[in-house]
Amino acid sequence: MKILKLIFKNTLRHKLRTSLTIVGIAIAVIAFGLMRTVVSAWYAGVDASAANRLITRQAVSFIFTLPYSYRDKIAKVKGVEKVTYANWFQGVYIDKNQFFPRLAVDADTYFDVYPEFLVSKNELETFKKERNACVIGADIAKQYKLKLGDVMTIDGDIYPGTWEFVVRGIYKPKFKSTDATQMLFHWKYLDETMKKFSPGRSGNIGWFIEKIKNPSQSGEISKEIDGLFKNSTAETKTETERAFQQGFLASTSAIITAMNFISFVIIGIIMLVLGNTMIMAARERTREYAVMKTLGFSAKHLILLIMGESLLISIIGGGIGLFFVFPLVAGFAEVIPKGFFPIFRIVPITIILSALSAVLIGVASAIFPIQRALKTKIVDGFRFVG
Amino acid sequence: MSALIKVENVSKSYTRDSFKIPVLNNLSLSVEKGEFIALMGPSGSGKTTLLNLIAGIDKPNNGKIFVNDIEVSNLNESELAKWRANNIGFVFQFYNLIPVLTAFENVELPLLLTNLSKSERREHVETALKIVGLGDRMDHYPKQLSGGQEQRVAIARAVVTDPLVLVADEPTGDLDKNSAGEILILLERLNNEFKKTIVMVTHDPHAAEKAHVTRQLDKGELV
């Protein structure tokens, strides 16, 4: 029999207590993993940003539009490889709860600037030819069981009216971090309709997207683009795509901070739970530790025994938690509207943090019991009634 | 012949809350190799304290203790732990077996501190359990043994490392008359046959009869 066997046997002394502690740790790790996944999902847009893309929007607010005429001027700026543009269309598809991005884009250039949206050549050609065609992300096609040729009817809100689009392409995400929940249709279809029914609103772009040759020049190019329209009626603000995405997060930073904080508080709480379990266990074994010291077991052995038991419980609990967090996250991903968190998956750092948390819980929970066991003199240990 | 155990002018007191309680007062004692000595006296006379000092699980405030010419009263905690593992076998009144370990595993416990292989440890344990007459109870847990059997396992654990000295604190204190008798016969055998030096604390005059020498303590002094 080695010390390891004694660790196992000690862990199984109070099966109910140990089981409940393990379940508690598993739940804490699951909660931690879920919260970290939500935080990661929040930052998914930022993480998926391309270094070689800039966004030009109205300087006052993103909700104001820019003139279409800016396009050619932007395209001439040194360092800009290609320019595309988009308008936020949104509207209501089926009902108000079906949220995913619905954008009017430049059909000729959009997929060149977003190469991570993989659509077949044939589908792209068909999409470009038909004015009322649309391309949808693979996640949307799956969620709504849409296939090529299906018609999507959208009730416009920003752009009133009933709009029908024919699905001519389904794009797949190139990377795991690529959003596959967007619906993209012709900006010209939107503009031509506006010319007919609301001429004052035609010729306006939501934002321009520039693909640049050299990401290290993003600052200079941004400055030059904005310089073109300084003192105009629609001044621009150009920034990297990453900064643009981070701007959206700024308004919700308090929530993200709170979630981060709470996820670590959960770990702290379960550390106290396991710490309590270990203190109770060590207290019950005060006489036994005195006996072991009498037999010649040193401080090192006692530390090994107590730390070993604590780590065994926390690692088992953490392992169970990690095992179940994957299907739970997958389940959540199915239930929440795709548009809110297009990328909702457990990222490697969450797994690492969860595993490290389990280990930290085990180590920290053993500190007080170890200290007590080492501090108690043998003769005092034998006097302990418990 | 030099005594195996020499206690020289030892004093010991404990502090409980803010009270200083003197237990031993300038006590001297020697025990020869192979001797079986009983320490008797009223409750609070310092018997167990003296036993603990000899066994190296406590330290005197004054004086010196030598065991086999090693001044154990001067060793630090780590040295004392190693010294106890190699030289002392301790038998407690309440057995103090580890409840989650079998009789075999309890007896094996001190051997985990040695360099013996698994098979060597097994051999030692089986021998020790046979000596105490429990060769057929190796896989039993303490709760499956009677009080007398538990104490015999405890004695096996105490002797399995072949220590220089066996210290026993009221080894029959928690046993019925018959079981107590068996334990005393066993201790006698360890002394006569295996030449173990035994220092035993007891209230029981029958137990003291087995010893070669009986010393009386009262108020921390030998009388």
| Radius of gyration of chain B, CA atoms, in whole angstroms | 17 Å
* Count of discrete domains of chain B: 1
- Alpha-carbon Rg of chain A, integer: 30 Å
- Which range best describes the helical content of chain B: under 10%, 10-25%, 25-40%, 40-55%, 55-70% or over 70%? 25-40%
- The outline of chain B comes out as globular
Tell me the distance between the termini of chain B. Answer: 24 Å
Shape designation of chain A:
elongated
- What is the percent of helical residues of chain A? 40-55%
What's the total number of strands of chain A?
13
Integer average pLDDT of chain A: 91
Q: How many separate helices of chain A?
A: 15
Low-confidence stretches of chain A: none
* Class based on secondary structure composition and strand pairing of chain B: alpha/beta
Oligomer state equals heterodimer
Count the E strands of chain B.
Answer: 10
Provide a descriptive summary of the structure in words.
The complex is a heterodimer of chains A (386) and B (223). Helices cover 55% and strands 17% of the residues of chain A. Chain A is of the alpha+beta class and 386 residues long. Chain A has two domains: 174 residues, no CATH class; 175 residues, no CATH class. In chain A, the strands form two sheets. In chain A, strands 1, 3, 4, 5, 6, 7, 8, 9, 10, 12 and 13 form an eleven-stranded mixed sheet that branches. Chain A has a two-stranded antiparallel ribbon with strand order 2-11. Chain B has one domain: 3-Layer(aba) Sandwich (Rossmann fold). Chain B is built from seven helices and ten strands. Chain B has a six-stranded mixed sheet. A four-stranded antiparallel sheet of chain B has the order 2-1-4-5, covered by helices on one side. In chain B, strand 9 and strand 10 form a beta hairpin. The longest helix of chain B has 16 residues. The radius of gyration of chain B is 17 Å and the shape is globular. The interface between A and B is medium-sized, with 24 and 26 residues.
